[in-house]
Amino acid sequence: MALSRRPDGAAVSGSRAWCVWRLSCVVAIGCGRISFEPLSDAGDEIVPPDQIVVHARDDQGVFAVGAHVIVSPLGERFVTDDTGTARITTTSPQRLDVVFPIASSWRIQTAIDVPPGTAVQVGRQYAAPTNQLDITVPALANATAYWITLRSPCDVGGKFGVPSFSLEYGRACEGETLHVDVFAQDDTTAEYWLEGTLTFRAASSATISGAYVPASTFTITVTNVPLNIVAIVGIAYRRVEHNSLALVSDLGSVAPPANLALVGAPAPDVVEVSLEPSTLSTNYFASSRHFVAVPAGATSLVVDATSILPNYSSIASDSIGRAPQWGNAAAVEAGATSVVYEATYFQPDLHWTAIVPKQAGTVSFAELPTDLAAAIPNEPPVSSTIATYVVPGVSNSFAIDPVLDNRFAGSLPSIVYYNYTLF
Description:
Blueprint: E1 4-5, E2 11-12, E3 25-29, E4 51-56, E5 68-72, E6 76-79, E7 85-89, E8 94-102, E9 105-114, E10 118-122, E11 131-136, E12 143-149, E13 164-169, E14 177-186, E15 191-199, E16 204-207, E17 213-214, E18 216-223, E19 229-239, E20 245-247, E21 252-254, E22 260-264, E23 270-277, E24 284-293, E25 300-304, E26 315-316, E27 325-326, E28 338-345, E29 350-356, E30 383-390, E31 415-418
């Protein structure tokens, strides 16, 4: 039987470990990261070259104390301390399966071939809203909706029918003064925009001033679209504080071969383009997501669909849902950033996410010890997704943008691997 270990690395005999899903697991490698946001105000975490450090949080962004970290081929189990941290000493790449219960359900985050010198952050990386600020934005004639966007984790989304509303946010944003984009929509569905700043002080009020101008349209043309693609989906971002990205457009969707029009703030810095293939089967879905840097001043962009690979041909699983496979995996280009598999089960209530080798075409379920057997599925998942991420200039297979989690909770991969600042 593998040993459990205390957070300081000392072995603990026996199977008893310290007992204590959601998006997103963030992984930082060495001195670099894939992120639009620092790990902390102190900068990137420096990990010794013979260690892998795991930081775990629960669905509320609180330290996951006693989360189980199954490490292979090392053949050991670790548990996280009061700060949700465990340290693994190794000189070779390892598979990590981080397992912890959430109420009556389970979360398993898997990262394969994690190299030494890496810090792995698992779970929700921003706290659930705890503070509240009353905000007033300029009124727009005949407006039917108002909303604001700013950097994660301070932007919790939501539209409001009046220009004065309350915004709930996490305590990590308290005291910060941030750039904010304000949007309003009139009764013809036309959108308007202005920008300003907002200081977060709990139990206070803030007024954003300025004059609205018509929202801009950014056009994306996708060429060489395969026949099985039924939708082109995109969204735009602007770079703001802490090298973060803030959403500055509506989520756009169009059936090919039409062009995609993103309505929002002018001069986005990055756009995300996804190709959505026809549904593989009732509860299975595949997609490819491509992040593109926008040249300064550009109002349109052309993207070649052949750079957004692959269009998976199938997703299947064994009879007990522990060995998923997907077709066309060999088509994943060498320059792709990440391939992520996600699955949701009812028996037991479990959400499993895994970053897998780019062209593997399959991933095996975690080899869990007997005291964690309750987390092992005994039937196929009720839904699963395989997604390819293409981020220019980033070839590490564990690289995904975490900021998206904030707005599209529940629809994005749960693991993010920081390595370099993008673009």
